[in-house]
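Pair request: fold both.
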Amino acid sequence: MKGALVYQDYLKLIKKNYIINETIDQNQIQPASLDLSLSEECYEIKHSFLSHKTTVRRKLKDLIIKKINLNKEFIFKKDKTYIVKLNESLNLKNNIFGHCNPKSSTGRLDIFCRTIVDFAEEYEKIPNNYQGEIFLEITSRSFDVAFKKGNCLNQLRLIMGNQYYLSDEQLKKIKTKLKITNFKKNTLKINNGVKISVDLSNSKTIAYVAKNNTPVLKFSKIKSHKINDFWKAIKNIDNSLLIEKNKFYILKSKEKVIIPDNLAGEMIPYDTGIGDFRAHYAGFFDPGFGMPNGTYAVLEVKTNEIPFLLEDGQTIARIKYEKLNKNSNIVYGKDIKSNYQNQGLKLSKHFK
């Protein structure tokens, strides 16, 4: 069966050594993706790069500032760039390829990370039948963050044969199953995917913005950081919000989202037609997300160019849906202790 692979496929690929990691944790396997984990091998580097004509290791030789051992917790300084070899490597066959995205918790902390592999012309892409190591480039943009070996910052989604994104016509036919709706208007906007709009009408907090001077955030510590140490809550004034240059905001969608168990979703992070800002770092929605009644999408928004005024109900992102090669026997939700199944305007899992 062609399409995006599901939970039971990843189990088989690990057993067959298509995915190699001697110490893989069962919790890394998601309904239609695999969490990738940091190894102890880490380097601070001079600048970002791609290795389209050679291996990552060969390219790295001239870029290393210092080597770091992540067997002990190490603080990644804000705006410095690091590269970490991941514990997982690949030995793909049978026309399997893939792509990666930051995990939701990573995006909500303004940690910019992207996957690099040997002889690749693009970030985040795993070439067809790729065999080799995987590296993750990491730049924390709002906070100093302490990482160590085993932390999971990004996810891999593998596809066999062909990737099938649903067309707008197909989305219109199944829109009742998607149950995505802007409840006040009772409409679903479909144009190159499903349009998602921002909710700035809340009578209380409409957004959070990252503070400038904060303590170190310990990535391994869940539900242990004080919100006020890292974030300022923004109250509603006139159903609008000025996104200031180089500041990082957490907002939520007006729509509730459901990903049916035969589909996976992906948020498109940057669309100049909508506005000159990045609206989402973390791309993947697994099958079962939001079931049965829908869950708001949390949006991570930043502009690096000019200040941008957002208004309530404005389109801020798009979700594309893709077919799975079969129904997953595991879906997103409380049975696998998913963190964001019934979220509102929710910060990452690291906060109390």
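--- second member of the pair ---
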Amino acid sequence: MGKVSLKNTDTCAPRDMDKQKTKGKLEKILLELDELQNLLYAQSKHSVLVVIQGMDASGKDGVIRNVFGKLNPQGVSVHSFKTPTPEELSHDFLWRAHAHAPGKGMIQIFNRSHYEDILITRVHKWCDDKTAYRRMEAINDFEKLLSVHNHTSILKFYLHISPAEQHDRLQERIKNPSKQWKYNEKDFEEAKFWDEYMKMFEDCFEHCNDIPWIIVPADQNWYKEYIVATTLRDTLRKMDMQYPGLKK
């Protein structure tokens, strides 16, 4: 991927993208994903790990609900990474991630992920640079282990939202009764560290790119969901899966 400048990366869909046509395409993709996921589950030879990172209010929950929520829940699992528990802190930093790695036939979604240990920890100086770069090496090895030895396809999405759009969405959490449950006053404090977060994400993209990151413009939900769904669809297609025959 090379060095990424998020400041110079679009957060909106290309101007020639038609919203209604794109939403129509998305519906067809979701129907195909339903069949492809069924194949994945039935064949049980491959698995998919979907990593979703992004600033607060970038729409991580919305992607999970509107893309993966259409699939059979028997074959999809979601794990949200929050502040480590005392038990998790007593192990190496990847222990809690490995515990939720997908089994064959499964799609596992990480809502935030093992990358938090080189993002928020560095922004708040809980982790020094030397430790962070060692962790990046461990992350690359961890992802290689899953992809090479367990036939796991790893999709890493960074939902790229603009500061203005984030501000509007955080304000909506205060005003909209249906979204007030999401409100967390700490989100506004974290937003003050925007520039530092961008530096840490850019460093992450540069050093943890053995499996490439997909930077998704996230100011418009319809486009963000289209990109994620299309990427997943294309990944599953490439597996060239078939239903198993009768057991002998």
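Observation on the second member. The chain has one domain: 19-237.
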